[in-house]
Design brief:
amino-acid biosynthesis, manganese, Phospho-2-dehydro-3-deoxyheptonate aldolase, binds erythose-4-phosphate, binds phosphoenolpyruvate, two-stranded antiparallel ribbon, 12 helices, single chain, cadmium, TIM Barrel
């Protein structure tokens, strides 16, 4: 019966999918992946679901973050360590301020697919859709979708997950981030293991956008444990549906309905309270606290106006969702010198609006979802170091959207800490 529901879900229109040049070859790759071992263990996903139930009840806070787009070349131990160490550091700042446990979910071990605004780039080439689909180099060959990349993505994700488990068991050394403005060097220096608190075992889960359905459908196991039999993704503990793929009649929502994993759903400015009520009804049919995380990304100028009617509608429905704010995606703009960027001040302003709305409505502002890296990049403007447009070309390394660097991220954690207090 689940197989039939899965086929029906996948037969619906699916936005943002690549057009593989050879459909048979793509199907053969899906067949190979079908034989692959799950990357995440069912008991880990179940533990995360329990943790998220406490977030939904207001007994914990959710921190989710990492690269906008992971790349195969960037899937290295130093990079993963830096990002995990940053999450640990941010989590510690937030836990202390909130007086609550912080549940940490990395955008890691599978965040290889990107939705895009257009199908072609400025040169007229097919757009880069993430390393799992094609390659960013500006040639027709590089941009042609290659299904073999799904196998590479699986291998990279499995390797990353092994490292996440190892580091969580050992404890992760946190970066000591020197915040600018306190007599420290401009962009925040990172120093490892020289005076930070001793590393201790920790828990970090992995997540990615549930975008590329040929990949997502390949590694599933039957989960008979819940109120109805469902499928569980073997590719990540937590999956989210993006702003560009949340069409109510589309394949992504229908696919997520079949999963037992905790699910996130991005809500942009065009989303109406009625639409959200319908998403909640479909994605949380058994009224499981924390099953659904609603991720508002309205932009700093609109959050105070657009979020309250949505929160009121969902609250009235009685579903115990997690309210999470993504202060990045509604605040993207192009700099005068042509870089896709975000201003630190706008990121903080959207979060301030989010906390204000929830305080006023008496709901739990349950978490944040941010694009950050422990690496010292120059992709977002502002922060105490005062990054300017002239700084952007220095270390603009993202494969897609701009991330806060280590210094900006820790500064953000302190700003959110103030809001939590
Ligand atoms: O990360 C999010 C999206 O992939 C991204 O914002 C879309 O980017 P584009 O507008 O450059 O295509
Ligand atoms: C694409 C993303 O976000 P959104 O769907 O909100 O634009 C993302 O988080 O990578």
């Amino acid at each position: 019966m689940l197989a039939g529901r899965l086929s029906a879900a996948l037969a619906r229109p699916a936005a943002q999918q690549p057009c593989w040049p050879d459909a048979d070859r793509a199907e053969a790759v899906v067949g190979l992946l079908h034989e692959a071992e799950p990357i995440v263990a069912p008991e880990e996903t179940a533990r995360l679901s329990a943790r998220l139930a406490s977030v939904a009840r207001g007994e914990a806070f959710l921190l989710q973050g990492g690269d906008c787009a992971e790349t195969f070349a960037g899937n290295t131990e130093p990079h993963l360590r830096a990002n995990l160490g940053l999450l640990e550091r941010m989590g510690e700042v937030l836990a202390e301020a909130a007086g609550l446990p912080v549940v940490k979910i990395a955008r890691m071990a599978g965040q290889f697919a990107k939705p895009r605004s257009s199908t072609v780039d400025a040169l007229g080439l097919p757009v880069y859709r993430g390393d799992i689909v094609n390659s960013p180099e500006c040639t027709v060959a590089a941009r042609t979708p290659d299904p073999h990349r799904m196998l590479l993505a699986y291998a990279h994700a499995a390797g990353a997950m092994d490292l996440v488990r190892k580091l969580c068991a050992e404890g992760i050394e946190e970066p000591l981030v020197a915040l600018a403005g306190a007599g420290h060097p401009a962009r925040g220096e990172r120093r490892f293991g020289d005076g930070g608190r001793p590393a201790r075992p920790t828990e970090i889960y992995v997540s990615h956008e549930m975008l590329l359905l040929d990949y997502e459908r390949a590694v599933l196991w039957a989960d008979p444990g819940g109120p109805e039999p469902r499928l569980s993704s073997g590719l990540a503990h937590f999956l989210w549906i993006g702003e560009r793929t949340r069409q109510p009649d589309g394949a992504h929502i229908a696919f997520a309905e079949l999963l037992s994993n905790p699910i996130g759903l991005k809500l942009g400015p065009s989303c109406t309270p009625e639409e959200v009520a319908e998403y909640v009804r479909r994605l949380d049919p058994h009224r499981t606290p924390g099953r659904l995380t609603l991720v508002s990304r309205m932009g700093h100028a609109q959050v105070r106006e657009l979020l309250p009617p949505i929160v009121e509608k969902v609250t009235a429905s009685g579903h115990e969702v997690i309210w999470q704010c993504d202060p990045m995606h509604g605040n993207t703009r192009t700099s005068g010198n042509g870089y896709k960027t975000r201003h630190f001040g706008h990121v903080v302003a959207e979060l301030a609006g989010f906390f204000e709305v929830h305080r006023r409505l008496g709901t739990h502002a349950g978490g944040i979802h941010v694009e950050v890296t422990g690496d010292d990049v120059t992709e977002c403007l502002g922060g105490a170091a005062g990054l300017t447009e002239a700084d952007l070309p220095g270390r603009y390394l993202t494969a897609c959207d701009p991330r806060l660097n280590a210094g900006q991220s820790v500064e953000l954690a302190f700003a959110v800490a103030k809001m939590l207090r």
